[in-house]
Design a protein that fits this description.
It is a single chain. The chain has 256 residues and is an alpha/beta fold. The longest helix is centred in the first third of the chain and has 19 residues. The mean pLDDT is 95. The protein is globular. It contains 10 helices and 10 strands. Helix 3 crosses helix 4. The protein has 2 domains: 62 residues, no CATH class; 181 residues, Vaccinia Virus protein VP39 (Rossmann fold, 3-Layer(aba) Sandwich). The structure holds S-adenosylmethionine. The site of S-adenosylmethionine has 22 residues, from loops.
Amino acid sequence: MLNFDFFYAWTKEHLNINLEGYKEKQLQRRIGTIMKNTGAATLEEYAVKIQSDPIVKKNFLNYITINVTDFFRNKEVFDEFEELMVSYLEPKFGALKIWSAACSTGAEAYSLAMIMTNHNIKHAEKITATDIDETILAKAKKGIYSSVEIKNVDEKNRQNYFTQEDNAFYLSEQIKKKVAFKKHDLIGDRFGTGYNVIVCRNVTIYFKNEVKEELYQKFSDALVPGGLFFTGATETIYSPEKYGLIKRASFIYEKI
Ligand SMILES: C[S@@+](CC[C@H](N)C(=O)[O-])C[C@H]1O[C@@H](n2cnc3c(N)ncnc32)[C@H](O)[C@@H]1O
């Protein structure tokens, strides 16, 4: 039996990561697999390796944070959100204050920035894009992607906002400067306030139910009335009114 109590306390103290909020079985299976790949037989041994070897540490962090993302992820839902930005959010609020939470490589935040640029929608401030993983944030800030990573970007946006050099696609400064990245842990760090839009997709699925419920309340509190909360395409909120939200479209909720 692996000593997860020890390991959870150790990661909290030494890496400042709270693993207690994540669904246990899934997470422990993942940790067991990556631990064995390093040759460690126990979590105590694995902790020593994480502390002494930066590569083991980086692999551990990458493995538990699952960074899969896409520009305009779930295109039909994104299209619906784009439509709401133009027909509802812009007329109602004018300039928008937006938070892309658990942003991974920035694809989501940059997709929003492209939509805003295309429709001339004003920013109240730069889009705030946050993630717990500093390595992925460093990549996001660079704005350099492979052809696979931008496969969902349509031809027009590709031509307008990317330049290609060999196999790399460089996002334009025009879009990059509209997004500000910073480290933020959804479990434990404070939330901002006054948002017109919060996008948090494909991360709450990894959290325990009670943590998820707490987060929905915090997201609702962080929105202004009429603001929209955009979730992932498997993250339906049951009884959204419990959190002061109503369903506006599939995976899009409005703060009452
Ligand atoms: C599957 S990706 C989703 C990326 C993007 N939102 C999307 O839907 O395409 C999940 C992201 O959540 C981040 N993450 C995991 N735990 C987190 C936490 N406690 N606080 C903030 N971000 C977290 C991971 O680092 C990863 O980048």
